[in-house]
Amino acid sequence: MSDAGKTQRVWLLSDTHGVLDARIAELIGADDIAVHGGDIGAEDVLETLTARAARLVAVSGNNDDAKRWKGAVSAREALPIEARLDLPGGELVVVHGDAWPAKARHARLRAQFPGARAIFYGHSHRALIDDDTTPWVLNAGAAGRQRTYGGPSCIRLDASDDGWQLELMRFPL
Prior knowledge:
Elements: E1 8-13, H1 22-27, E2 33-36, H2 43-52, E3 55-58, H3 73-77, E4 82-87, E5 90-95, H4 105-112, E6 118-120, E7 128-130, E8 136-139, E9 153-160, E10 163-170
């Protein structure tokens, strides 16, 4: 729970596939929440985020399987497929997004989570902020090296009871 009037900084990232871009890791502060939308790929990524943030929330992606995971099996097995965060000003739902076809993904996510303020998903590696309709649908792109479509990226969410502010951040390759 957050104090009334307080702004909570949340870093949204996904699709690291075992490598978290150091420039993105450096953005995360000790009072922040780091949210990973799946396809983490390695326990090291989780450890880095845990060491930097006040809290880490991460979900499993379709590539977080036994064949591709680097690190302790218990870390991979502990990942849920969905997470919900109660933030100032509303709820953020986190899923990987591979369960919905791309063409209908936003409509299906909004239908499944109508009470959320925003839904954050990974999987596509394509950064976007779809905030024309509530719940918003957000994708931070890829925060690693694979299929970054212009460079590693993440989204900064500043959540307060007065409103949510979003900033997509992209780094050169």
